[in-house]
Amino acid sequence: MEIEVAAIRERSAQEAMPLETVKQEAMASATVPGNGFQKGLALTALLTLALGIAILVSLATGAVSISPRAILAAMLGQHPLTEMQRLILFRLRLPRVLASGLVGSALALAGLLFQGLFRNPIADPYVIGSSGGAIFGACIGIFFFSQWSIFGFSATTLLAFVGSAATMALVYSLARSAGKTNVVTLLLAGFAISTMFTNTSYFFELFDKSGASNRILLSWLHGSIGIPAWTELAVSAGLLTVATLASLPLMRTLNTLALGDEYAQQLGIRVEAARVSIILIGSLLTAVAVSLGGMISFAGLIVPHVGRLLLGPDHVRLLPVTALAGAIFLILADSAARTIFAPSEVPVGIIMAFIGAPFFLYLLRKMKRSYTV
Amino acid sequence: MSSLLQVRDVHFDYQGHSVLRQASFALEEGSCSALIGTNGAGKTTLLRIAAGVLRPVSGNVVLQGRPMESIPLKEVARAVALVPQQLELPFDFTVQQVVEQGRTPYIGMLRGPARGDRIAVDRALDLANVSGLRHRIFNELSGGERQRVKIALGLAQEPRLLMLDEPTQNLDIGRQVELIDLLHFLQAEGITILASMHDLHLVDKNFSTVLLLSPGEPLASGTPEEMLRPSILEHAFQCPPDRHPLLIERAGLYQREA
Which residues are paired to B80 by β-bridges? Predict the structure, then answer.
């Protein structure tokens, strides 16, 4: 037997290249960061330009149209606009367009994180109940603690975060069994909890004697981007920046988690810590989006999916592309919401539902098997 | 030769059932061992415990002279790679992207892969003979191709010990021989091999040590000649001696030798 083993060894050593040769050849041809990296960079640059154009187009369109050239001149400190146009541009449209961008980025990034974590392309903050939890938390903030704020963050934002994170923890623990995540349970638990929280939020109307919050609540539940105060925008932009920076080091981890929890652990990833971090960051992003725009469906579903179609599934490359594409997508959707039935407005959430639901069904149909973690 | 890995008196229970009892073995540096046993005997569990992915209920695992639980995860991952039976990916990762994950234990959270990492990935792709597949989508590969890519992923970890869970499963006989040749080549390069195997024909000629797991019994080990005796296999696999060609063939073999 020993002779045979030796013969096989010899044969394999002859057939396969000696290790040193393999090493040297590998040294010579070591793959350069490569095509994919450059493609990602080019797409990021292109989307940055597209974001600028989308902002300009969105600022120009509406019940009163203002020429893009005049807008650019006004931004550069010249005075080509009438007082009314300036008021519309800087008091009404600019905060709203910026809010749309922030909401779009936040939802798309949250979708990217949740899809990566749950290893499933149909997970997004709306589908898995994270948005519902945030709405519920935010409603408690509006109705009971509207005057409170901690370190400049309103109770609404903070409670939206708590609601979102708690819902995610609950849905996730319900779907988790014997080290695996059952995707059907995840979606059903997300749906049930989301429905319960949304309807509980309607129930809060009963407590509202003045009726003032009623309008806010209704537009929130439909998903609508209002005209936020500049301080609110600044806080949201700050939180989005923090969440994006915090998710940067997790993108590579998400790639490894795609192999499955156990494989990731075997490759040296501290899976529980990574999971908790991703859920917290995803919940923070959802809270930012819900605080500004309420219950907007499917943005977090569509944008990462389109990103993957263009760039492949590498989360490191997807992060900037998803953030930019999310902003562009929602800015354009909100412009449509403002202008299709002008001077009336359609809540942007309704537009998103019309685009998103068929897309969701298409993805469901395309997924021939249910993924488990 | 010194022991690279020692598993001592390991017990493991799953949902109230005892899966492993008193499993002890040691892997010498540079050895090539096969782990055999009935379905459900705990082969996969034992490999996962040896790779540090599962913690045993009692007993301990010692890697390079240090208790497994005292070694940071990344350090374990640089010494031990486990190639699992199944790998399902939720998204369309290319072969190269999959194999690059093998560099995870070497890459810091904020640092991208360095030149050394790319060299290791290219080398792993070459060794497992999947360089030509590097731009293909992993989920679209055949069973044999996937198996080789999984091995490349393990090799990208540059491990001292490579463990494989049923590596010949779903492979045709030609691909089985290729895989065995690859294992011998890796062994010749100084990598210690432990593979759980169902096909005992392949075990006989190609492994220096056989570890036998029988339900409810302590793990036994020895050379293939010692462990693949018909009487041992008959008992361990609870298989009548005259019903399976392997047992009949081996009975003839041992009779001739006698």
Answer: B161
Is A286 part of a structural domain of the chain? yes
Does B73 contact A265 at a Cβ distance shorter than 8 Å? yes
Q: Domains of chain B: which residue ranges?
A: 3-227, 228-258
**Which value, in Å, is the radius of gyration of the alpha carbons in chain A?**
24
- Label residue A293 by pLDDT band (50, 70, 90): confident
Within 10 Å of residue B222's Cβ, how many Cβ atoms?
A: 14
- The residues with which B164 forms a beta bridge, in sequence order, are B83, B195
CB-based contact, A241 to chain B, within 8 Å:
no
* DSSP one-letter code for B170: T
Cβ atoms of B148 and B167 closer than 8 Å: no
Residue A84 has pLDDT above 70, yes or no: yes
pTM over 0.80: yes
What's the Cα-to-Cα distance from B172 to each of B39, B163, B177, rounded to whole Å?
A: 21, 21, 9
Classify residue B6 as left (phi > 0), alpha (psi -120 to 50) or beta. beta
B165 and B196 Cβ atoms separated by less than 8 Å: yes
Judging contacts by C-beta atoms under 8 Å, the chain B residues touching residue A20 are: none
Instruction: Inform me whether the C-beta atom of residue A309 falls under 8 Å from chain B C-beta atoms.
Output: no
CA distance B72 to B56: 17
The set of residues, in sequence order, having a beta carbon less than 8 Å from that of A248 and lying 6+ positions away, is A319, B110
* Region of poorest pLDDT, from A80-84, B46-50, B102-106, B222-226: A80-84
Residue of B nearest to A123 (CA): B90
Mean pLDDT of A102-106: 96
Q: Is residue A32 scored above 80 in pLDDT?
A: no
Which of A22, A183, A259, A368 is the mutation pick for testing B, counting most B CBs within 10 A? Answer: A259
Cα first-last separation, chain B: 32
Residue A263: which of B130, B105, B227 has the closest Cα?
A: B105
Mean pLDDT across the stretch A14-33?
47
What is the C-alpha separation between B146 and B175, in angstroms, rounded? 12
Neighboring chain B residues of A270 at a CB cutoff of 8 Å: 73
Task: Pick one of 3.40.50.2000, 3.40.190.10, 2.60.200.30, 3.40.50.300 as the CATH number of B3-227.
Answer: 3.40.50.300
Residue A2 maps to a domain: no
Closest CA to A236 of A53, A56, A89, A98: A98
Residue A143: inside a domain: yes
DSSP classification of residue B54: S
In chain B, residues with a C-beta closer than 8 Å to the C-beta of A113 are: none
